[in-house]
Structure formats: structure tokens, C-alpha cells
Amino acid sequence: MPTWTTLSIFLLAALGLLFIPGPAVLFVMTKSVDQGRRVGAVSSLGIGIADLIHTTAAAFGLSALLVTSALAFNVVKYLGAAYLIYLGIRTLLKRDTPRQTVSEAPQSLTRLFTQGMFVELLNPKTALFFLAFLPQFVDPAQGNVTLQFLLLGSLYTILGICSLTFYGLIAGTTAALLKRSTTFQRVQRYITGCIYIALGLTAAFASTEKK
């Protein structure tokens, strides 16, 4: 198992990376603004589960197969991009519903969890990240490499869920104060839809080059 020194350095590095807003943070904040804090928390959990899947794939070498195959990489990348663009278009076409905030959320938490999971799962850049980041803290001399991968990935996932939920709470709380305004709802809907589409286009045109 990793030494305490290695774990401490890993946790500091992970926290530094997690609190820099990225696509996952933007996705969760958008969800929280659109549908409330609980939805943001559920989306964070879905992203966390996807990160665990990526960690497991990296630990057993499956991510390496994805990264070394240009076809597989592009298929996953474009599926993820298309899904985000679909969410954006659907949001833009949604009708305004004054004063109905998150009353529908309890009926669709499973679907929202699945959305968060698929958005992260269909992001091959996440596989690249785990393949590049985790090995820096894995030491074969300290025991089973696979177990070290899983431990570090699990710790990163837990921290990730916490940081995403934190961002979601901030966004959801701020939006809740403005939800009574029909104008805000209309503007929010357009901004939310455009953010999804922008994330999808960014994912679609992102370089597949490994840095």
C-alpha cells in the first residue's frame, strides 16, 4: 500500500485539481441551477460512479486499450459529445414553467444520476487523466499495483463527489433565490442549454493527442 507520505502528497494534488472548475463542475453547477441542489448532488454521485469505473478500467489495463485505439477513442468521444448536445437542445426546447422549481426531481433522480454517469463515462479524456495521474503515486515496491490503483482512484472519487456537491450547493442556493422570476427562468434555460451544447462541441473537437 502507498506510504503515508505518498498518500498525503496525492491528497493535496487531488484537492488542487478538483477545485479547479472543469467540465464536470460546470455540468453539476448547470444542473443545480436548472433543477435544484439535490439534483446537483445526484449528478455528482453519478459522475463519481463513472470515475470509479474509469479507475477500475485503468487498474486492469482496459483504459490503455481505449487510449491506444484511435477508433475506440473517437467513438466514445463523439458519443459523449452528442449526448451533451442532445441535453442542450432538449433544455432549449423546454417550456417555461413559472414557480415550478424542483417538484419533478424526486421522480427522475435515477435518470439524472444516469445522465451524470454517462456524461463522465463517455469522456475519454477522463480515462487519459487516470492513466496519467494515478501511476505517479503507485509504487510496485509497496505492494499490489492494482490495489494501489483502486485505493487512490477511490480516494480521488470520494474527494471529487464532495467538491462537485460543494459547487452544486453554491449554484443551487444562488439560483433558488432568483427562481421566482419568470425572466430569470427564461434566461437560465437559454444559458443552460448553451452550456450543454458548448461542452458537447468542446468534447467533440478536443484533440485526441496525449499530453
TrEMBL record:
Determine if Membrane is one of this entry's keywords: yes
Q: What is this protein called?
A: RhtB family transporter
Q: Subcellular location, in the record's words?
A: Cell membrane
Q: What's its membrane topology? A: Multi-pass membrane protein
List the record's Gene Ontology CC terms alphabetically.
Answer: plasma membrane
Q: Which Pfam families match?
A: LysE
Which superkingdom is the protein from?
Bacteria
**Transmembrane segment boundaries:** 6-29, 41-65, 71-93, 113-134, 154-178, 190-208
What UniProt keywords are attached to this protein's entry?
A: Cell membrane, Membrane, Transmembrane, Transmembrane helix
Q: Which PANTHER family does the annotation name?
A: ARGININE EXPORTER PROTEIN ARGO, ARGININE EXPORTER PROTEIN ARGO-RELATED
